[in-house]
Amino acid sequence: MKISGRAVVFFFVLAAFLAVPQRPQAAPAECDRACLIGMVDKYLAEVVAHDPSRVPFAANEKFVENAVPMTPGEGLWKTASVLPTTFKIYVPDPISEEVGFMGVMKENDKPVQLALRLKIRNGQIVEAEHVIARNLPDFVLPNLQTPRPGLRATVPVAERIPREQMLKIAYSYYTAIVESNGDAAPFADDCARRENGFQTTTYGSPPATPGLGTIGALGCRAQLNTHALSYITRIDARRVEIADPQTGLVFGLSQFRVPMTQNFVKIVGVPGLEKLDLKLLGNVEPFDEPAAHVFNVRDGKIHEIEAMGVKLPYGSKTGWE
């Protein structure tokens, strides 16, 4: 077979090319702590600017707000007016390449509490999730000016616990609620919980939320052991997968299912108090509550809990089915 001179040259060039070791294409860098925190700041800036086109969304991204699937540009993207300023809690997790955030910002110039989760892959946002608490009463706003010190501290290296242990500790909180068993989670003696700015336990930091009375004066563990929260029968869609050993923070999302089949709950172990009238808390109709929690976990125990959520009709979908 006769081969032309041009073909010979081509084969020599091809052989030379194949003989040279080819530099492998660099994989996209993983998103570290600084990257994840920066992604939150970039994301929120564009939310307030109402411009999702400047956010690095993946082509197949999924966005859910208050359990409703949406498209970037909808929901808070239309109504946000002022960025979070002094109340900001970041929970970056380079292992899962997710970041949780809780902050107070303004929507139509009114304060709202926002929980945000972003999932990053190859430098792009593949999942974005908002939980927004609106109509915050004026009397809770002082609790939403700055995060409590335990939610802002850095844990000394020698005192940090493994990420997986942190996740398990935070997850046990939901089990403790459903079982009305304060011993099912490792609560510290100083554990305090706030929900949508309301102080719902008062160990070391009164006043309590109006209507809670004696129950509100108890710490996290003791309050659950009274069965005061036994009207919460299920907590579904528990997603506890974001933890930051550097700050001791864990970010969790879930959906509370509250059938409200009774008007009161029987109280255990509180002298002089046999039952808690749920009407005092305004809980009379069945409801769901998509909720976000930030847990401060130190020395293997839960110290602070910053929680927030929004009420939806009972039996609502989560948006992630």
Describe this structure in words.
The protein is an alpha+beta fold. It has two domains: 28-147, Nuclear Transport Factor 2, Chain: A; 156-316, Roll (Nuclear Transport Factor 2, Chain: A). It is built from six helices and 16 strands. The protein has helices spanning 5-19, 33-49, 76-79, 163-178, 213-216, 220-225, and strands at 57-65, 68-70, 80-82, 88-93, 98-107, 110-121, 124-133, 187-195, 198-199, 234-244, 249-258, 264-266, 275-277, 287-298, 301-309, 312-313. The strands form three sheets. Strands 1, 2, 3, 4, 5, 6 and 7 form a seven-stranded mixed sheet that branches. Strands 8, 9, 10, 11, 14, 15 and 16 form a seven-stranded mixed sheet that branches. A two-stranded antiparallel ribbon has the order 12-13. Strand 6 and strand 7 (124-133) form a beta hairpin. The N and C termini lie far apart (64 Å). Mean pLDDT is 89; it is low at 1-28 and 203-208.
Gist?
The protein is an alpha+beta fold and 321 residues long. The chain has helices spanning 5-19, 33-49, 76-79, 163-178, 213-216, 220-225, and strands at residues 57-65, 68-70, 80-82, 88-93, 98-107, 110-121, 124-133, 187-195, 198-199, 234-244, 249-258, 264-266, 275-277, 287-298, 301-309, 312-313.
Total helices: the number is 6
Number of strands: 16
Query: CATH class of the largest domain, anyone?
Result: Alpha Beta
Tally the structural domains: 2
The residue ranges in which pLDDT falls below 50 over 5 or more consecutive positions are: 1-28, 203-208
Looking at CATH, which topology of the largest domain would you report?
Nuclear Transport Factor 2, Chain: A
Q: What is the radius of gyration? A: 25 Å
Quick one: overall form?
A: globular
Order of helices and strands: HHEEHEEEEEHEEHHEEEEEEE
Largest sheet: 7 strands, mixed
What is the rounded distance between the termini?
A: 64 Å
| Residues in β-strands, percent | 35-45%
Helix content: 10-25%
pLDDT averaged residue by residue = 89
The CATH architecture of the largest domain is: Roll
Backbone structural class: alpha+beta
